[in-house]
Design brief:
binds NADP nicotinamide-adenine-dinucleotide phosphate; alpha/beta; seven-stranded parallel β-sheet; 245 residues; 15% strand; Rossmann fold
C-alpha cells in the first residue's frame, strides 16, 4: 500500500464541474485522493492527471452511485490502494428539470437514487471503515440551497438534496464523536449551475451580496470543514445570502 501515512480522501463525482475543483483543492491540502466518475471519462482523466502533480498515488474508479453493488466495488478498490480514510466527500449528483405533473418513475429513481441513495450508502460504507480507526475523521455532503426553497419543476432533485441534509444530521449524531459530518449547500455557482431557465441578472437580483458564487467560495468552505474540530451536523449555505430573501 503506497500511501505512507498521508491523509486520504474518498470522493464521489470528482469528474463534475465543481467536483473536480474540490478534488484538486483537497489534494492541494496534502491528501491522497480516490475519486469516482460515471460517464465523463475524459474529464476524470484530466482531473486525475492534475491531482497527481501534487498527489501521485491518487486513484480513480468508474462507479454508478445509484447501485450499492457499484459503491461496494469502489470501496473494495479503494481498500486495495489505501489503508486509512480521513475524509469523504459525496458530490456525485444528478440534476434535471422535471415538471411536477410530468415526473416519471424513471425521473424519480434517477434523481433520488443517485443523489440520496448514493450519498447514504457511500456514507454507510465509509463509516464502517472510519469507526474502526483510532482517529477522528470527517464527511462532507454536497447539497443545495434549493433544499430550503420551493423551486418549480425540480421536485425530485430538491427533495433528494433535502434528504441528504437530514442524513447529514443523522450521521453526525450517530457517528459522534468519531466522525464529524457536515454539508455544504451552494447557491448558484457562476457558470456551473446547470440552470438555464432564469437569466443571470434575475438570479443576481435575488442575492444580497450581488454576485453569483465562485468555485473558490466552495473550496474555502471545504478547507474550513477539513480543519474545524467542533462543528458537526451543520449545513453551511454558501449562497451570498440568497436564503435571506
Ligand atoms: N455547480 C453548482 O452551481 C451547484 C449548485 C448547487 C449545488 N451543487 C452541488 O455541488 C456538487 C458538485 O456539483 P458539480 O458542479 O460538480 O456537478 P456536475 O458538474 O453536474 O457533476 C455531477 C457529478 O456527479 C457524477 N454523477 C452523476 N450521476 C452519477 C451516478 N449515477 N453515479 C456516479 N456519479 C454520478 C458525474 O459523473 P460523470 O460526469 O462522470 O457521469 C459528475 O462527476 C453536486 O452535488 C451538486 O448538486 C452544485
Amino acid at each position: 500500500m503506497p500511501n505512507s501515512g498521508k491523509k486520504v480522501c474518498f470522493m464521489t463525482g470528482a469528474s463534475g464541474k465543481l467536483g473536480s475543483e474540490i478534488a484538486l483543492a483537497v489534494a492541494g491540502q496534502g491528501y491522497s485522493i480516490f475519486f469516482t466518475w460515471q460517464h465523463s471519462e475524459e474529464k476524470a482523466k484530466e482531473t486525475l492527471e492534475k491531482i497527481r502533480w501534487v498527489s501521485p498515488e491518487s486513484q480513480m474508479a468508474q462507479c454508478d452511485v445509484s447501485s450499492v453493488t457499484e459503491i461496494e466495488r469502489a470501496f473494495a478498490s479503494f481498500s486495495e490502494h489505501f489503508d486509512r480514510l480521513d475524509l469523504v466527500i459525496t458530490s456525485a449528483s444528478n440534476f434535471f428539470r422535471a415538471p411536477l405533473l410530468e415526473v416519471t418513475e424513471a425521473d424519480w429513481d434517477s434523481l433520488v437514487d443517485t443523489n440520496l441513495k448514493g450519498a447514504f450508502f457511500t456514507m454507510q460504507l465509509a463509516a464502517r471503515i472510519m469507526t474502526k480507526q483510532p482517529f477522528v475523521s470527517r464527511m462532507i455532503t454536497m447539497t443545495d440551497i434549493s433544499a430550503n426553497l420551493v423551486w418549480r419543476n425540480y421536485a425530485p432533485y430538491t427533495v433528494s438534496k433535502s434528504g441528504i441534509q437530514h442524513l447529514t444530521r443523522i450521521f453526525a449524531r450517530e457517528m459522534a464523536p468519531k466522525i464529524l459530518v457536515n454539508s455544504i449547500a451552494p447557491g448558484t455557482i457562476s457558470a456551473y449551475s446547470g440552470r438555464d431557465d432564469e437569466p443571470e441578472a434575475d438570479l443576481v437580483g435575488k442575492i444580497p451580496l450581488e454576485r453569483l458564487g465562485d468555485p473558490m467560495d466552495i473550496v474555502t468552505t471545504i478547507r474550513f470543514l477539513m480543519e474545524t474540530e467542533y462543528i458537526t451536523g451543520q449545513v453551511i449555505n454558501v449562497d451570498g445570502g440568497r436564503l435571506l430573501f
